[in-house]
Write a structure and sequence with these properties.
The chain has 186 residues and is α/β, with parallel strands linked by helices. The chain has one domain: Formyl transferase, N-terminal domain (Rossmann fold), CATH 3.40.50.170. It is built from seven helices and seven strands; from the N terminus they run βαβαβααβαβαββα. The mean pLDDT is 97.
Length: 186
């Protein structure tokens, strides 16, 4: 059995979708959900799913304490699902080519520092893009610059708002992120 840790900063809808998709998988197990905010709703989702959770801070991320926690839980792979902090080189080195992220746009457009959530959707709409989507990619030392694993598109209507576009993007994320994790590591 290969163990997955999910790192999240907020609500955790992607974490829940991944955990539910892999709940009865024969070779993949979401065994840890880690949040960098003690009030992140993803921790409630973890409890409701019966998955061990932990809270860490930026210092834990940078000084290797989180790595020790991941090793304690025998983590093989790390999934970033709505995780907003930059992954430091020490964590990338501990899990080479075993950390992936999902971005709510079609990279390389609308990526980089500060480009997350509603900010991305607002920028897509302001630039009158006809399509948006999701990008699943490996994590490297630069925000949203790792090798791309998978992309999916959706149409952007002239009537879309950041909220309606977010709903389209979430639908893609919840469907394709769990599938790609299974395809990649299952």
């Amino acid at each position: 059995m290969k163990n997955i840790a999910i790192l999240a900063s907020g609500s955790g809808t992607n974490a829940e979708a991944i955990a539910n998709h892999l709940a009865n998988h024969d070779s993949l197990n979401v065994c840890l959900i880690a949040a960098n905010k003690s009030d992140a709703y993803v921790l409630t989702r973890a409890k409701n799913l019966g998955i061990t959770s932990t809270v860490f801070n930026r210092k834990d991320l940078e000084n290797g304490s989180l790595i020790e926690e991941l090793k304690f839980h025998k983590i093989d792979y790390v999934v970033l699902a709505g995780f907003l902090l930059k992954i430091p080189p020490v964590l990338i080195a501990a899990f080479p080519n075993r950390i992936i992220n999902i971005h709510p746009a079609l990279l390389p457009k609308y990526g980089g520092k500060g480009m997350y959530g509603e900010r991305v959707h607002q920028a897509v709409i302001e630039n009158k893009e006809s399509v948006s989507g999701i990008t699943i990619h490996y994590v490297n030392e630069h925000f949203d610059k790792g090798e791309i694993i998978h992309k999916r598109e959706c149409k952007v209507s002239e009537f879309d708002t950041p909220t309606t576009l977010a709903a389209k993007i979430h639908e893609l994320e919840h469907k394709y992120f769990p599938q790609q994790i299974e395809k990649l590591w299952g």
